[in-house]
Amino acid sequence: MQTSRFPEIRFTADVIDKTDEGYRLTGRLEVRDKAREHVIDLRTEDLGDSWRISAESEVRQSDYGIKPYSILMGSVQVADDVTVSFTAVHAKDD
To answer: Cα(92)–Cα(35) distance, rounded to whole angstroms?
Structure first.
């Protein structure tokens, strides 16, 4: 992925809509200086004294100029579509 040349992956939400399980974020995902429209469904869970926030999103590597990793002349290959997941817990303010 050339992380020294492209050290950041950035998502900027332009629209945030409330859903039954949390929020739907619609915006632009930027990877390797290529930006594309992207939607992320963010789940929120009330844990009492804190919130759990989580999301899973599928990203097609080739959409951002990334050739899926392969070895042994292509006999072992990472799929073009990869799933990125995120979970965080944030304490509620007193």
So the answer is: 33
CB-CB contact of 49 with 94 (8 Å): no
CA atoms within 13 A on the CB side of 91: 2
Interatomic CA distance for residues 63 and 34, integer angstroms: 8
Total domains, the chain: 1
Within-domain flag for 2: no
Residue 13's domain comprises 9-91
Determine if the pTM surpasses 0.85: no
pLDDT, tens digit, 9 for 90 and up, residues 21-30: 999 999 999 9
Residue 77 has a CB neighbour count (10 Å cut-off) of 11
